[in-house]
Amino acid sequence: STKQKLQRKIAVLGFMGVGKSAVTIQFTEGHFAEPYSPTIENTFQKVIRHKGIEYQTDILDTAGQDEYQIFHTRYAMGIHGYILMYSIVSRRSFDMVSTIRDKLLNAVGTENIPHVLVGNKSDLVHEREVATEEGQRLADEWGVPFIESSAKFNTNIEEIFRKLILQCEAGQEGS
Ligand code: GDP
Ligand code: MG
Asked: Which partner for 82 in 95, 115, 121, 168 could form a disulfide, CB atoms 3.0-4.6 Å apart?
């Protein structure tokens, strides 16, 4: 068969501790990794199949951004789409995700970059600091998909990557 194979590069951005590594590892390796050093940056690989197309996907699990760090320009180059992540148990990480997005859009120079908003740690219901509606409202403002996930219980993890790949396809036909 002449199956199509496409290369896709994704970066995961967000405040330290929101679960960037846990989500990436749950998706690529199928287990909940804990604990994981917040300063480690790694690239993971996984094939995502969608509508008969195989997407050879590289996932850059970035080291946590805080408000004082300058945005790495290498996060803005050669990357097809972004996962912008906060934790539903951290108001600060939710505030930070807008700052990170501003820096990202500045660095890539366009609002037309595929991205999704993720509120991770949805299993920690009793510690919730950010309502689902707040996340949804922000994503609506941005005009991007919104997903609440749990890396711990593998809830909506595939969904994140599937939605992002779809975003990428909508943005750049045939590339
Ligand atoms: P990163 O700094 O954004 O890469 O965050 P990590 O992936 O290292 O996760 C930070 C901490 O949150 C670790 O102790 C993880 O085990 C924990 N964690 C990550 N995702 C979840 C989740 O979905 N649910 C719960 N309960 N804990 C999580
Ligand atoms: Mg990490």
From this structure: 115
Cβ–ligand 1 distance for 35 under 6 Å, the answer yes
ipTM of model over 0.90? yes
Separation of CA 35 and ligand 2 centre (Å): 9
120 CA closest ligand 1 atom index: 23
**What is the pairing mode between strands 53-61 and 42-50?**
antiparallel
Distance 18 CA to ligand 1 centre (A): 6
CA distance 1 to 20: 36
**Cα gap 164→161, rounded to integer Å:** 5
CA distance 15 to 97: 7
Residue-wise pLDDT for 97-128, tens only, equals: 999 999 999 999 988 999 999 999 999 999 99
Compute the distance between CA of residue 163 and CA of residue 145 in angstroms, rounded to an integer: 7
How far apart CA 147 and CA 155 sit, in angstroms, is 10
H or E segment and range at residue 158: helix 157-171
d(CA 62, CA 36): 13
